[in-house]
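_Backbone structure tokens_
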Amino acid sequence: MSAKCTAFARLSYGLAAAAVLMLAACAGGSELPAASMAEAAPSSTYRIGPKDMLRIVVWQNPGLSDTVPVRPDGRVSIPLLDDVEAINKTPAELAREIEKKLSAFVQDPLVTIVVTEFAAPPTQQVRVIGSVTKPSAIPFRANMTLLDVMIEVEGLTEFASGNQTSLVRMVDGEQKRFRVRVSDLVRDGDVTANVVMLPGDVLMVPESFF
């Protein structure tokens, strides 16, 4: 192939790739309303999953307190108690169950549980791909917003087209796509661009070619 043909082929390929990316960016869908913690509350509770690490503290009983992993079978063990079902419970729910079981051995036990390491399944994550500094799968937590997510991934890259970011979300069993204005939020401080995140959300940040 001649040098002229090769150059033309490369130009055509580049234009085609750019066109595809532009179409993808334009297909961001409708915009979401600004973040409201009242909206976030119904879906804000983290549920324990396999391989999470739990810090279980029994007040005034250091011998019963421990940091333990959630086994692949979804259970945890602490002194005096074996095989306590933990998976799909909130930390508070598990704490109340352990208190109930420990009451056979300890008078009025008071238990607190903190998830110190997360190994959340995709349905309990917010995943971020594309032109961000640190693409990540982030465990969902209470009242999480777009700003929280962007702090976790350390912001946009230099060439990110942040305002063309797509948020993919399951709504009533159907996958839907929304456009979010990440550049307005993180570069201009426009709080109206901050939106509530939900478990399972996927953010796709395209790169600008202009």
The radius of gyration is 23 Å. Helices lie at 3-26, 37-40, 91-102, 146-152, 182-188. The longest strand covers residues 111-117. DSSP finds five helices and eleven strands in the chain.
